[in-house]
Specification:
The protein has 153 residues and is of the alpha+beta class. 59% of the residues lie in helices and 12% in strands. It has 7 helices and 3 strands, in the order βββααααααα. It is elongated.
């Protein structure tokens, strides 16, 4: 079987298996790679729960600069922030830091949504997907020099 991977455009890859070609985003390609490695070499990749990933991201963001956090908040989907906030409800310092860096309108909207949505909790798949997207944007903003996170975190 002949397999090839080519970058089709920014963030999109064409993967060919013989005469069949599939198009994947960077995120989908990373997921394919991770699942392949997990299958081929069990135990090679540590499995961190979505809740642990959320806590790690929370620790990073609490030391983030205000301008970078504002850019992060504007760059991600409200549902991702909402899921993240819901999963870190007990972290009052994180919530204060994030709410202080968003508009009054967004603060009010997210606060109301936190109260009424996800009353049955958030499943790991939802949380994992939201946290991955938040981490991707966080890392990109760090690489761009917009979001600065203290080195000790």
């Amino acid at each position: 079987m002949k397999i090839s991977v080519k970058k089709a455009q920014n963030g999109v890859y064409a993967i060919s298996f013989d005469d069949t070609t599939h198009t994947l985003t960077t995120r989908e390609l990373k997921m394919l790679l991770m699942e392949s490695v997990k299958s081929l070499t069990p135990g090679a990749i540590s499995t961190v729960s979505p809740a642990e990933e959320a806590r790690d991201l929370a620790a990073r963001l609490k030391s983030g600069n205000d301008t970078g956090l504002q850019k992060l908040i504007m760059s991600v989907a409200d549902d991702d922030i909402l899921i993240f906030l819901k999963s870190t409800e007990q972290d009052t310092l994180l919530h204060a830091k994030l709410f202080d860096n968003m508009s009054e309108r967004k603060h009010k909207m997210l606060s109301e949504d936190l109260e009424y949505r996800f009353t049955d909790g958030i499943d790991d798949e939802q949380l994992g997907a939201a946290v991955i997207r938040l981490i991707e944007v966080t890392n990109q903003l760090q690489n761009d020099g917009v979001l600065e996170i203290s080195a000790g975190v």
